[in-house]
Each structure stands twice: as C-alpha cells, then as structure tokens.
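debug: dumping io for the single-chain case to check the tokenizer round-trip. Nothing else runs in this session.
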Amino acid sequence: MFRSLIETTDDRIAMLARLALGIVMFPHGAQKLLGWYGGPGIDGALGFYSGLGIPGFLGWVAILAEFFGGIALIIGVLSRLAALVIATDLLVAVITINWRFGFFMNWNGQLQGEGFEFHVLAVTLALIVIIRGGGALSLDRLAAERRETIGDVSALPERSH
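debug: decoded output
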C-alpha cells in the first residue's frame, strides 16, 4: 500500500502539476492558518466556516489540508495523498460554498461570491498527481528509487566464498 502511494516515474508533467497545485494551495492555507498574504488567520477562517454552518473540526481539516498539503506537494512527499486531500477539500468547498455563485470567479467584484472555475483547474491538477504520482524532483521519486535499489538483489555486491 505504501509503495503505491510513493511510486512514481521521472515524469515532468506530473512534477509540473504537483508544483503548480502546491504553489497555489500553500498560500491559501497560510492565509487561513497564519494570517499571511492578507488572510484572516485561524479565528477569521473558522468564523467564516462557522457562519456557513461548517463545524469547527471540518474547518480545521480544510485549513490544515491546504497548508500542509501545499507543502507536501511542493516538496513531493506523499504527493498522491496530499493531492487527494486537497481535491476533496476543494470539492467540498464547491458543494458547500461556490456552486451557488456559478462558474466564474468574481473578477469584477460584481458577484456575491466566487464561482468554481478555480476549483475545476485545481482538482484537475490534483487528478494528474493522484494518477501519475509526484513525478520528477519529488521526495516520493527519491524514496521509490531507494526502495528499488534496496530491493534489487543485483545491485548488491557479490559475496566471495
């Protein structure tokens, strides 16, 4: 099971999807967890979720998924799991918040909220990572290569009798 989580090839497309998703999701999590980038911080984020009827525990799950999932994707550790958690977070956001505002983001400030076009792109990137793994330049790839080397008996030196 663990092997299927980290197994990946030297795939540059998967790497690009992983990095793009991680680089986009980390700041969203940092806004909510740390108040960085003009974000509300923990109290503000949890207050926002509470106002939508989302229990505090699930608010924490969303915040931690975006922050630590973003970091995991950037460094490429447990990439498939991180992408799955982020995709789930985003799909729940669409169902509970964004669906009612339609497809488009609030580019002109004329809508009551944000649509779900961003979520479509991010979930698609997550699906690439879930299917193909972390790809090139990931800790998953490094760990998979080490497992292959350790498990490959031909890589061991011959014993003299």
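debug: round-trip ok. DSSP finds seven helices and no strands in the chain.
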